[in-house]
Write a structure and sequence with these properties.
347 residues; 73% helix; ABC transporter involved in vitamin B12 uptake, BtuC; globular
């Protein structure tokens, strides 16, 4: 049964409350937070980290950590972009998404094989592959900023609606790419909620040995998980360059810190086994609003990194305290049951 007490123990209500409080403060200071164009800009800024956060949340829930997804997205995007430009491709953008997703899947599968079947530490593997993929991009392909094929450029101009600020006259377009984010959110929600594969991801994060005893194929689940994260990164890479209308190989590198912070802030337990898509997207929204708010209030943007570090520390600390409280509560209940059984036996 869901009770107010149980709801307040979750991270999502507190993150939502922080978003509302921050919005009120920024609106009071700048008067621009609740304008239509600013809200559209916020939604636009959430799309790319939101997509990254879906895969990041799944990995952390499984008890792992992945810092290679931005490198995968960058390499997959760049190779796809260069290939299509060299062939003068002007067809449907679905080919670009398919190529980049396929390359991302292969790179993610490398992570999955090393982690799932060789049982190497996730952080070590993904740090290594992130350096490998970045080195290949700059060393082999001599990556630099370039144009995008006509199909990707046209895709970037697809909009759902335009919001105009009545005071300043500034306008912002809601990109159609937000539909991709919503579609993938729905797909992953159904996978995690209603499939044995989704249950297996949570199970191995809670206790990998127990998950194996329960019959879950842990190596296969990890192979699927990291392959899916790679596929998702490949899609995100094309989506990103379509929105900015040029292929910058460095545009996504370094974003992993903010994404991991957002996912942890949204209530995903760093030790695995607990996490929700809702919390992850709320965490991304809070981090995005925080960065946007600094600009609206005239605070230098380099303070964003300082706030990101604080968020990681606070989010991890809160999670650790929640785990400790649950463990202490469990021990107390266990001790109480043993006392009751002992008393009943003596009677």
């Amino acid at each position: 049964m869901i009770t107010p007490r149980r709801i307040l123990r979750r991270s999502e209500p507190w993150v939502l409350a922080a978003i509302l409080v921050l919005g009120v403060i920024v609106q009071a200071r700048s008067g621009q937070f609740l304008t239509g164009n600013n809200l559209v800009d916020l939604a636009r800024a959430i799309i790319v980290p939101g997509l990254f956060s879906i895969g990041c949340m799944m990995v952390i829930v499984s008890g792992g950590i992945d810092v290679s997804f931005t490198a995968i997205a960058s390499l997959a995007m760049y190779v796809t972009d260069k290939t299509l430009l060299a062939s003068n491709y002007s067809g449907n953008v679905l080919l670009a998404y398919s190529m980049s997703a396929g390359l991302g899947l292969l790179m993610g599968a490398l992570n999955g094989l090393l982690i799932g079947f060789l049982r190497l530490p996730t952080l070590v593997v993904t740090l290594g592959t992130a350096s490998l993929f970045t080195g290949v991009m700059y060393g082999v392909f001599s990556a630099s900023a370039s144009d995008v094929p006509p199909s990707i450029a046209a895709h970037g101009k697809e909009i759902l609606f335009t919001a105009v600020n009545p005071q300043s006259g500034l306008s912002s377009n809601m990109p159609s790419q937000i539909l991709i984010l919503l579609g993938i959110l729905l797909l992953v929600f159904l996978l995690l909620r209603y499939t044995m594969l989704g249950r297996g991801i949570y199970a191995i994060g809670g206790d990998e040995a127990a998950a194996e005893r329960a019959g879950f194929n842990v190596p296969f689940i990890k192979l699927f998980l990291y392959s899916f994260v790679g596929l998702l990164a490949g899609i995100t890479g094309i989506l990103r360059i379509s929105m900015i209308a040029y292929a910058d190989p460095s545009t996504m590198l370094g974003m992993e810190l903010t994404v991991i912070a957002a996912v942890v802030l949204g209530g995903t337990r760093v030790t695995g086994g607990v996490g929700t898509l809702t919390g992850s997207i709320l965490g991304v929204a809070l981090m995005t609003i925080l960065a946007n708010s600094l600009i609206l209030m005239g605070i230098p943007t380099y303070w964003t990194r300082a706030f990101t570090g604080i968020v990681i520390i606070v989010g991890t600390g809160v999670t650790a305290r929640q785990i400790g409280a649950r463990q202490r509560g469990g021990r107390k209940k266990g001790a109480a049951r043993r006392i009751d059984r002992s008393t009943a036996a003596k009677a």
